[in-house]
Design a protein that fits this description.
six-stranded parallel sheet, alpha/beta, five-stranded parallel sheet, 265 residues, 38% helix, 15 strands, globular
């Protein structure tokens, strides 16, 4: 069956930090020129789709916010279905708080007064936040996370702790796993992206740099997977992993070789 959609990761695939990756814009242009609809996805929970779109436009990648799915936006849309009238206590960034507030949720500073504890990336995470998480769960709150990324890349190539590390810390304290996590490889993220593309999974590529999120999401949901080596995964890590992408390329600029292979099949 012909591939007509592409779910494309952002950090480590299209750019690193504030710098576009070499060949990425040309790879995206090739996808567009060959008739592929593109949906950008990110586990970064600190920005809205509108902010991601603005960043891409600054990098000379024209895109509408409707073509971007973020961990923050999927967290908000899932909460709208599962806890539509909830009061939230958020351990997370100002950007995540803005997305949840814009979606109509009430945020509280009292962990004992919330219906849902939302845990995410927060550079100011500290001991008192762990205590607040414990108090929220003791009071009967639901427990959700934005994304499972234990580390995230920085502009200089070094990793720093991400949402997953903070979610794991809270989970260890309250002795329970989150009720759900919104970001890749979760079904919520895959289903949202496929809905934006209006494509069945067998007609879509997933292109990204992380085996445990991007490639795992594609595998779980029956999509063709493409690993790029411009992010957190190198060939040594790939060789040791039990997650096997369908295609491996040096960067998004080499996506033409994948399209040629698919066409030949």
């Amino acid at each position: 069956m012909a591939i007509r959609g592409a779910i494309v990761d952002l950090d480590g695939t299209v750019y690193r930090g504030d710098t576009p990756l070499v060949g990425a814009r040309e790879g995206l242009e090739l996808l567009h020129d060959t008739g592929h609809e593109v949906c950008f996805v990110s586990n970064n929970p600190a920005k809205s789709p509108t902010e991601f779109a603005a960043r891409l436009i600054e990098m000379d990648v024209p895109v509408d916010a409707e073509a971007v799915v973020s961990a923050a936006s999927v967290t908000a849309s899932t909460l709208e279905r599962t806890h539509s009238d909830a009061t939230l206590f958020v351990i997370g960034s100002p950007g995540l708080r803005s997305v949840l507030t814009a979606a109509g949720f009430r945020l509280t500073d009292d962990p004992a007064a919330c219906d849902v504890l939302v845990v995410s990336y927060d550079r100011g995470f500290e001991y008192d936040d762990m205590t607040d998480g414990l108090r929220a769960i003791e009071a009967g709150a639901a427990f959700v996370g934005t994304d499972p990324d234990r580390t995230i890349p920085t502009g200089d190539g070094r990793a720093v702790p991400g949402s997953g590390a903070i979610i794991d810390a809270i989970a260890g304290i309250v002795d329970r796993d989150p009720d759900w996590i919104a970001g890749k490889p979760a079904a919520r993220m895959a289903e949202t992206a496929l809905d934006r593309l209006d494509s069945p999974p067998e007609e879509c590529l997933v292109i990204g740099d992380r085996l445990d999120t991007d490639i795992a999401m594609g595998e779980r949901h029956g999509m063709e997977t493409v690993l790029v080596l411009t992010g957190v995964t190198d060939r040594e890590t790939l060789a040791a992993s039990d997650i096997t992408p369908d295609h491996v390329i040096d960067g998004l600029g080499d996506i033409g070789s994948v399209l040629d292979t698919i066409d030949d099949n």
